[in-house]
Description:
single chain; alpha/beta; 4 helices; about 20% strand
Amino acid sequence: MTSEKRAARTVFPALSLPVLAGGTRDISKPKDGLEWMLVLVYRGKHCPLCTTYLQQLNSTLPDLNAQGVDVVAVSADSRDRALAQMADVDPKFDVAYGLTIPQMQEMGLYISSPRNGMDVEAPFAEPGLFVLDNAGVLQIVDISNVPFARPDLAWIAKGIGFRRGPMKDAPVNGTYA
Length: 177
């Protein structure tokens, strides 16, 4: 299943999801006094590459937070599956779960169906990374249809610093009309 891809310089949708820490949160809004938002969509418990990527996110988190960037990781997994995977990640960021197919489509993600031999219960989102500014406008968009094509998180942190610093008044890349 495919969906219309999210364009840079558009407003990210307000999506409310449950988080493992309890309650729900709008994944488009930073919290704790932070100004920007990084939303990282991962495939779910069945994906060992996702576990490694989320562990790398833990390592990059101090750099992101120091730049005023809040982080949330999101999947379509159930709470139990997300908890099981996060036991190997020990996340220092919020983890949201229960992403629905309409929400995946609204985010512009690639969606895969369960396949034989995989530990998957339902359709799931392929990887996505979205960086939103303080107005909720997409500054960085990376959507993939495979788990092994993802941006380097250290470079994302450096790019956000560049975007928020010397390039803060420049137009968003990829928006030529």
